[in-house]
Amino acid sequence: MKNSIEKSIIIFDNDCKLCQHAVKFLKTKENSSVFSFIPSSDSASDNLLDASHIPKETADKSIILIENNKVYTKSTAVIKALQRRGGIWRVSSILLIIPTFFRDLIYDFVAKNRKRL
Asked: What is the total count of domains within the chain?
């Protein structure tokens, strides 16, 4: 049975080593039909951001997941991407019970310090 969910698009900061490692982690042979990855510096990301009404500055500071015409940013994007990766990573969905405000505080801390990590 074919999966009814289309390919998820992940927009990421290609200048960030942490982001590059996250993409490498998500980009597996098994997931080649699940994700499309677009660097935030790519012109294709500009079109997607415009169509999704997301400011370019947001893409420079956050991972963005576009899935089934829904846009997820920051911690929610990470959790949703882990769910789509499958396997044991589906368990990460339990983190969605934590209020977004708190999850995003941690995300913002990591994002702010990502070049040192």
From this structure: 1
Give Cβ neighbours of residue 7 (< 8 Å, ≥ 6 apart). 33, 34, 35, 36
- CB-hemisphere CA count at 13 Å for 8? 26
How far apart are alpha carbons 47 and 42 in whole angstroms?
9
Q: Which amino acid is located at 60 in the chain?
A: D
Q: Cβ(38)–Cβ(97) under 8 Å?
A: no
Full domain range(s) for residue 50: 8-112
Q: What is the CA radius of gyration of the chain?
A: 14
pLDDT by residue for the chain (117 residues), tens digit each?
Answer: 344 457 889 999 888 888 888 888 888 766 667 888 999 888 888 888 888 878 777 766 788 999 988 999 999 999 999 998 888 999 999 999 999 999 999 999 988 887 776
Dihedrals phi, psi of 39, to nearest 5 degrees: -65, 145
CATH number at residue 18: 3.40.30
